[in-house]
Amino acid sequence: MSTNGSTFTVSNPWRDRILQGEVCSVMSCKFFVSNEVAMMVKMAGIDGMFIDMEHSVLTIRDVSQLVLACNYVGVSPIVRIPSKSHWHLSRILDAGAAAVVIPHCETVQEVKDVVRNAKYGPLGIRGCANNQPILNFQTVPTLVANDLLNRETMVIPMIETPAAVELADDFFAIDGVDGILIGSNDLCTDLGIPGKYDDPRYLDSVEKIIAAGVKAGKPIGIGGIGGRLDLLERFFKLGATWSLSGGDGSILQAGMNKIGQNYGEINGRVQESRMNGKAVK
């Protein structure tokens, strides 16, 4: 957006790609608090960092620094807040989040309230603030900033229960809802099939949400099944565009497990070789 010869933009490459229908990877982060992880994500070719405040002990200060690092290296910071509180929404957005994800949305009114607190007027009542990190701390006229951030930072409710699945069309229809994230594990648990991602009840629920999102022209993300690339590809072909693709803890643990396995196998061969050597003597 331009004003008085100046052009102001929001760097949100993940949003740009999913709105074009491209499939995007997103790494979940709930243990790493060092800014170096943002560059690692960038160099790995991952499009966004999902900073998880719901299932972690990350503080707002921790999150704000990770958000800054993401914005400066060109990775979109997507923050899942731990509640629907207006102060969680506004403080995380003021910290520079490219998208805010709201867990456990159950009713249309809850989602309308979320939008009201997360968007500037006329869509909502979010309080105005200058020197915003997502605008690179530029001085941007309020009218310009409000319109730009309403449009280009994203408000993404989560659907995690069977009752909310039935409201998918209504959620997508709300002005200011920029997409939906499906919480697969909570959804399966509420369906009485925890961890059973091949169950038709889970598959039908996801496909119903995707169909609603495609009809509304809004992006859909899939959470909780990063290891099931077969299902993710199926959902991407139907119209979903992003997933929580892997977590910092699980990625680190997988690498550590591989090291432990490799050295355990080497030790076994070495000990066997030594025993054989003694037997020959």
Task: Describe, in plain words, how this protein is organized in 3D.
The chain is globular, with a radius of gyration of 22 Å. It has an 8-stranded parallel barrel, surrounded by 10 helices. A two-stranded antiparallel ribbon has the order 1-2. It has helices at 13-19, 36-43, 60-73, 86-94, 108-118, 142-152, 162-165, 168-173, 184-190, 200-216, 229-238, 248-280; strands spanning 2-3, 6-7, 24-29, 48-52, 76-80, 99-102, 154-159, 180-183, 220-223, 242-247. The model is unreliable at 1-5 (pLDDT under 50). It has a single domain, classed as Phosphoenolpyruvate-binding domains (TIM Barrel, Alpha-Beta Barrel), CATH 3.20.20. It has 281 residues and is of the alpha/beta class. It is 49% helix and 16% strand. This is HpcH/HpaI aldolase/citrate lyase domain-containing protein.
